[in-house]
Amino acid sequence: MATTVTFLFYFSIVSSFFISSNAGRKLLDSESVSTSGASNLTYVCDPSRYSNLGLDMSDFAFCDSKLPYDVRAKDLVDRMTLTEKVKQLGNKAVGVPRLGLPKYEWWSEALHGVSNVGPGTYFDDVIPGATSFPLLFSPQQRSTSPCGRRLVRLFQQKQEPLRDPRWGRATETPGEDPYVVGAYASNYVRGLQDVEGTENVTDLNSRPLKVSSCCKHYAAYDVDDWLGVDRYHFDAKVTEQDMSETFLKPFEMCIKDGDVSSIMCSYNKVNGIPTCADPKLLKDTIRGDWDLHGYGSNIVSDCDSLEVMVNGHKWLGDTGADAAAQALKAGLDLDCGDYYPNFTETAVKDGKVKVKEIDRSLNQLYVVLLRLGFFDGNPIYNSLGKKDVCSQEHIELAREAAKEGIVLLKNVNETLPFNSYKIKKLAIVGPHANATTAMIGNYAGIPCKFISPLDAFRNMVK
Ligand SMILES: *[C@@H]1O[C@H](CO)[C@@H](O)[C@H](O)[C@H]1NC(C)=O
Ligand SMILES: *[C@@H]1O[C@H](CO)[C@@H](O)[C@H](O)[C@H]1NC(C)=O
Ligand SMILES: *[C@@H]1O[C@H](CO)[C@@H](O)[C@H](O)[C@H]1NC(C)=O
Ligand SMILES: *[C@@H]1O[C@H](CO)[C@@H](O)[C@H](O)[C@H]1NC(C)=O
Ligand SMILES: *[C@@H]1O[C@H](CO)[C@@H](O)[C@H](O)[C@H]1NC(C)=O
Q: Which residues form the signal peptide (predicted)?
């Protein structure tokens, strides 16, 4: 005889309940994500594209796929005027029509899934990553890597460790342990970036990239707004030991173990210096000590960091040109914002920075795009298509990852797992009892399908 048991289940915090299916999916136009504008762009060095543009591709050595990436990047950069060069240093790189170089948008987000793009297989928010054993990260990210959007650079991982649980962005991190954070980040990066079959390529500067991933925010950034100090004015006072053991460790692992192709500096100052203008943090540590390898990688600012430097921190009373010059000299390659494009030319003319600093950055940026296949295409991914999005295999992996991230703290009277033969009535109570989008977290991709807790339990008891 079946007993009637009534459960009160209060869903104030909801963990992942996405059991997705193939229903209702549609592929978005990949070009709208990757190359903003030229909607029929396949890859830059496509001969028919050049002939459509009335240009002869053979005039441009940067399109010669037989040459090494650094030679090709240099050829491209050397053809540009100063005015053309500085216009490529912002996230909205405008391109150079007379060279057949299209515009490129460097900014997109992918904390877990490509933000606001989908539907695609949804992976849980990042904070359960702090509890996931065994680590599922690499294969997990292999299946999230967005099919058909391979020419994209993604700002990815909030991978600074969590110091204060009151920080509003705690959920975007894999927790407080610098080693776990570093392991999560480097595996995530491997999954996103690595092209199968190229693991053993020895020249890291030309190793192909599936997507270019970016670890952020560097460094000691975890304050949003506290006691009247916000992240645009925050000056983190950190001892050298704490800096290296806690705040820098995950970034070091992201570079050395993950071979990441980009690092993003943060809005705050560390011990009095804005991170994006600090040559010790950027050039000396990232490129020097950790050897973020030579030219196939870049350092990018958080969006409008230079504006924050001038108007928030009022750093050294800098003008826009001063800030651009300082950041370039510190080793910042790309400005997510418009300070570099707007003020760098003046900075050069005023003798504040040398053109060779700009050339160094541009060369690094174009080698990343060459590694991505932006110039030559990437035929091994041509067979990917709709069938690879929201596939059953990927959904199972997402479910497995979500399960690994759940910790059962208490199970009074062995209530769990629920027994659907015994439970005939179940009350689901709370603000998120019928939640769908509220469950996905922020900077998330759009799931294949939503199942609310209410529906999931309803399916269970019927
Ligand atoms: C896109 O195609 C149109 C016509 O098919 C052509 O005129 C145009 O030049 C092409 N654009 C690029 C960037 O190849
Ligand atoms: C890379 O090297 C490892 C160790 O030698 C080997 O097991 C693996 O098969 C190699 N991978 C490829 C794609 O060659
Ligand atoms: C940069 O220049 C653009 C175009 O002239 C302008 O719209 C924008 O406001 C400028 N930004 C700054 C910070 O000066
Ligand atoms: C657990 O079971 C005992 C014995 O049946 C009962 O007295 C107690 O109320 C139960 N606890 C809960 C939280 O249901
Ligand atoms: C749950 O939400 C859906 C829309 O997301 C709505 O159609 C449905 O009526 C809601 N159910 C309840 C019991 O409120």
A: 1-16
Is 56 known to be catalytic? no
Q: Which residues line ligand 5 (CB under 6 A)?
A: 434, 436, 452, 454
Q: Tell me what pLDDT residue 135 has.
A: 55
Report the residue among 413, 418, 423 best suited for mutation to probe ligand 4: largest number of ligand atoms under 8 A from its CB.
413
Residue 412 CA to ligand 4 centre (angstroms):
8
Distance, CA of 328 to CA of 344 (rounded, Å): 9
Model confidence, pTM = 0.85
Q: Cβ-count burial of 233 within 10 angstroms (0-12 exposed, 13-18 middle, 19+ buried)?
A: middle
Residue located nearest, by CA, to atom 3 of ligand 5: 434
Residue 198 CA: nearest ligand 2 atom is 13
- The DSSP bridge partners found for residue 298 are 262
pLDDT (tens digit per residue) in 396-436: 988 888 888 888 999 999 988 888 888 888 899 999 999 99
Q: Which is more confident, 31 or 59?
A: 59
* Closest protein CA for atom 1 of ligand 5: 434
7: CA distance to ligand 4 center in Å? 13
Angle at 447 (CA atoms; ends 18, 137), nearest 5 degrees: 75
Q: Within 10 A of 139 (CB to CB), how many other CB atoms are there?
A: 14
Q: At what angle do helices 339-349 and 355-372 cross, to 10 degrees?
A: 150
| Listed range (20-24, 151-155, 403-407, 425-429) with the worst mean pLDDT | 20-24
Ligand nearest to the CA of 6: 4
Mean residue pLDDT across the chain: 84
Amino acid at 124: D
Percent of the chain with pLDDT over 70: 85
Ligand nearest to the CA of 310: 3
Size of the chain in residues: 462
